Amino acid sequence: xxxxxxxxxxxxxxxxxxxxxxxxxxxxxxxxxxxxxxxxxxxxxxxxxxxxxxxxxxxxxxxxxxxxxxxxxxxxxxxxxxxxxxxxxxxxxxxxxxxxxxxxxxxxxxxxxxxxxxxxxxxxxxxxxxxxxxxxxxxxxxxxxx
Length: 146
Known about the structure:
Layout: H1 7-10, H2 16-26, H3 32-46, H4 49-61, H5 66-70, H6 75-78, H7 83-96, H8 105-139
């Protein structure tokens, strides 16, 4: 893979806004496990190796099971995820795949019923933030630490 610029090194101030979003997200109702599931699922869809490496380690460090992480791509069929986690993952997928249909009315309504306004807003912000990180890492070929 070709070597590309690393924005965090040449323009460190550019990351301040992203770090502010991360600080906000750390103070929300989303559990550490829910947050890592959002980050993992969006990163799977986007094919971001750097973020998958980072967030799989973070998820395990926060008590997530390897089995659930291995089956995350098949969350609908696995039976391993709660109703709340399922709607969080569904919202994450639709926000990540915004070009397909966006956040559908049916998913939005289900999320409002299961999550409520605040947790839905926080889920959308978490999905949006990891998608931005994915785009930075993929565009710059962010190297995976050894």
